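On clarity, I found the account of how folds are encoded harder to follow than it need be. Since the whole study asks how a given chain folds, the encoding of that fold should be made plain. For illustration, here is how one protein appears when written out as sequence plus structure tokens:

:::
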Amino acid sequence: MLLQRSIWSIDGTFHAAPFGFSQILVIGVEIEHLFVPCAYAFLSSKLAQTYSDVFGLVKQLGAPLPTKIKTELTIFNGFMAVYGNTATIHFCFFLHFFKAIFFKIKEKKLQEICCDPNTFVYVKGFLALTFIKPVDVLQYFRPLRDEASKQIPSIINVLQGLYLYFEKPFVGFVQNSRFIRPSNILHSNVELFDTICRGEQLDNSSRKSYNSLLKALTSRYSAH
């Protein structure tokens, strides 16, 4: 099945790994809304070289060079060591960006803005940045940031810190009349807009659901 599909989905699960192993790496494909596992690797470590060894074996089996692959950053180096620039990398940006936003809201003790619908609208606007083209993000980000600061002056310093945290790595900024691209590799490789246009799954929920089932299955047998 790997030979027939160009979109691979790769993820590792730590909780399902048996004693003596660090991780089970699952390589599968996306079919509509489903994740179909095709290959498993029991890893002794989470080093890039370990991932390279796995991908090297997969490549030797005759699998074509993938044109698209969804993976997480921890596996990126091992994959690139084998396939180089012959594949287009699509990270799980959609889910991780959302998690990063809510993590920062909690860290900065801004939960109150999530409880008030009049202020939560600015959080939703922040999340909606993944729905537009990357080249347009800055255009929408600035008015959103400025309007939020104007409407919620009581926490303006903390709020500005929140937006500043995401501006450099995810959005990009203008310095000396020149646009500085975002430093975070995730933003330049995948965003929700293009994912929809490609007809791919929006996030990795189907793969995560499979990992949960795998964890439950291995836990049951480990109990015996």
Remarks:
- The first strand starts at residue 7 and ends at 13.
- Residues 185-190, 220-224 have pLDDT under 50 and may be disordered.
- The two ends are 33 Å apart (CA to CA).
- Residues 17 and 23 are 5 Å apart (CA to CA).
